[in-house]
Amino acid sequence: MTDFKESGFMYAVGVMVIAVVMGQSIFFLVKAYKRGIELGMSKSSLKETMVSSALFTVAPALAIVATILALSGSLGLVLPWIRLSVIGNISQETAAASAALDTVGGSISQEVTDPNQFTLITWVMTLGSILPLIILPLFLKKMQKGINKAVKKSTKDNSKLVDSLAAAAFIGLISAFIARAIDGKGTAGNNPYYGKTFGDGAGIMSVTTLVVAVAVMLILSKIAEKHHIKWLETFAMPISMFAAMGVAILMAQVLPADIAYLEWRG
Amino acid sequence: MSEDKKLTAENAAAENISDEKEAAMDKIANESQSAYINKMHLYGRIWTLLALAAIMAVPVLFCIHLNTWPKASNVFKALASVAPLFYITAIIETTAYTPLLGTGGMYLSFVTGNISNLKLPCALSAMEAAHVKSTSDEGEVITTISIAVSSIVTTAILALFVLAFRPVLPYFTKEDSFFAPAFKQVLPALFGALGAQYFTKHWKISLLPILALVIFLIFSPGTGSGTLIPIGVVLSIVWCLVLYKLKWL
Prior knowledge:
Low-confidence stretches of chain B: none
Oligomer: heterodimer
Radius of gyration of chain A: 22 Å
Helix content of chain A: over 70%
Shape of chain B: extended
Helix content of chain B: over 70%
Low-confidence stretches of chain A: 189-197
Structural class of chain B: mainly alpha
Largest interface: A-B, 170 and 158 residues
Number of strands of chain B: 0
Shape of chain A: globular
Strand content of chain B: under 5%
Largest sheet of chain A: none
Number of helices of chain A: 10
Order of helices and strands of chain B: HHHHHHHHHH
Number of domains of chain B: 3
Structural class of chain A: mainly alpha
Mean pLDDT of chain A: 86
Strand content of chain A: under 5%
């Protein structure tokens, strides 16, 4: 039986969404290019902008591909593909999916096999992310006027507070997942090798993965900063994520099962 | 234009004809730019609503195709725990990026997403390379071109890789596959990597929410992320404000 998450219909829906995004991008590109010529900008400088933007995009786009693959274990390829092609960003989509599964006692560290749970996740991801698309058509014009005035008035002090508050909100979100990796109770898995006890609760595996991810990320960003390696800055996140996942595989292969899969909270 | 300005313009003209010519050309340029911006707002609104319709169609089509609808109560329960954070973020982001991304760029980047990690740095570096400011007429052109190209390339790369990866996916995700333990640990791997930089940069803010949630889980280990997220977010925002008031930030 083919997986319902990967059926031809699902891909067709994905293609429809992609077509709209592509259409809008090409339309705006043409409009802006013509306007540039009207303003007397040189064709070569406009082309330069296009080429450099395309090159700039390749690395971060590959990093996004990596996050799609990471989510595909549980959600299949199509849903993460659609969500990360429009509006989405990885932390928000993952949090939305986790919160959705939480209401029905599921977990994102297992494959979602119930179509009903899958639609629940899709709804939560979608409704959670569309607000900007309502704000912009209604308010962008007014906001531009107001903000241009406000920017001139803002002091250095309160812009630092705004930055810190934005970081704090994100830190709060991350803390929830960090804490669960340290001492949260999991939902039991159904691994044919290790039986019902091998779930996704906090244990040796989750803490090691967490520590490796943090450590690799810190080391890589230090190296990138010190030696001014631009590409490493972009890829530090996916490399750290895959390194940590790699360590999980290594532990499963090397350590005795009762140590590798030890979960202190069940 | 007010009478006074007209008068001064006429005076200037009396003194120097080329000055008047310049002023007139400036006026024409300003008018053509605001006409362009107005048109971009119109196109932006139309395309954003189109995109919104396509995005909203996804869950509807999935439900019809799979012939199953989730309980509304579950959808709202999940949204209640994450949406407040997402919606506040949306308001902050739309406000913060408005002066940076230009009109066309704003409409485009909020449809295609991945702004802070891709569209914004891409547009900023394009403006730097072209020596233009985001508030200038040329800046508007450069940001739109840069974000449009970036969106096209991103969308194409994602589509290519997804199609290429499709045939091999089942080997990776089967329960007994070699890779299964890795997929079980996606969350700690992802949020460890994402969090690392925040923790070092804002360690004073980070300490309390992590510690508090770990202690919370000691007493209530089964609490899911849906409950923990809002607790964590409110805690760390309040803590951030306290640190600011105490001038420890």
